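step 4 of 6: structure.
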Amino acid sequence: MTKLGQWLCGLLLLGSAWAALAGLRLPAPLRQALLPLPVYLLVAFGCFSLATVGFRLATFNDCEEAAAELREHIRAARADLARRGLRC
Amino acid sequence: MAGGGNDKFSVLLPTYNERENLPLVVWLLARTFRDSGTDFEIIIIDDGSPDGTQEIAEQLEKIYGSDKILLRPRARKLGLGTAYIHGMKHATGNFIVIMDADLSHHPKFIPEFIRKQKEGNFDIVSGTRYKGNGGVYGWDLKRKLISRGANFLTQVLLRPGASDLTGSFRLYRKEVLEKLMEKCVSKGYVFQMEMIVRARQLGYTIGEVPISFVDRVYGESKLGGNEIVSFLKGLLTLFATT
């Protein structure tokens, strides 16, 4: 099954469970919690996504040392290649 | 020593206008492999660069010998996927390393790739900017945000089991790369992504090594609106078809 298919199956499953529960004669407080549940889930997922991307953005490594080391290596490479007769 | 035993590593370097960078990356590769006592060859596939990359490549072939540097140029720009196929036809190693020739990928990580491969007997070892000590240099906040956002979206939609899908610093078993090249049809960033997705489908194992990605020291880095749109199209295509 494709990833799209898996998503549709998952959503269909959750959606029908929700619809079935919503169709039952539940006590009022339960019902009040149940009806907006899909919206809550969507909002929660949105928050989770923002938090995850935000955290990973803030902790994305800046490889200053790697860049400095590369510049050093480039100097060494240039010198050695010139010695070996490379004409740039 | 992190020697590769009887293994031989063929590095594929597709180039287009890399006159400045090519000698440097070849020098770093040669030093890295010699220091670790690993058998290697470098296959340079130049797509008719107008800046004279091919002429520099010929000089490198003389300096390092035609057993270490193999020149397999093509007449014009034909894309990355076909460059790999073209280069692989001439590869004599049992492992293939693919990387960018613009110095954003440092050859020093290759011994770590090799160690990782041995450790888990992996079919593929992929460099990752998103884990452990991995990271980037030379990206502004916007570029990082796009990268992180795109990566998160990809993880959610495809659940690929690898953290860096758009990176192109990887080690493959030769027969695995051959098999994947038959299957993969996308271009650009999506091509690297499709390789990992197909690899999972075919049941290949993937190991990961954190790498630092130092954005192009010489030359222009490319990420425009077009790239983002084609990335999203490619992602959705993979989402709907795999």
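step 5 of 6: annotate
 - The helical segments of chain B are 21-35, 53-64, 80-89, 110-120, 141-158, 174-183, 188-201, 225-241.
 - Residues 134 and 223 of chain B are 20 Å apart (CA to CA).
step 6 of 6: archive
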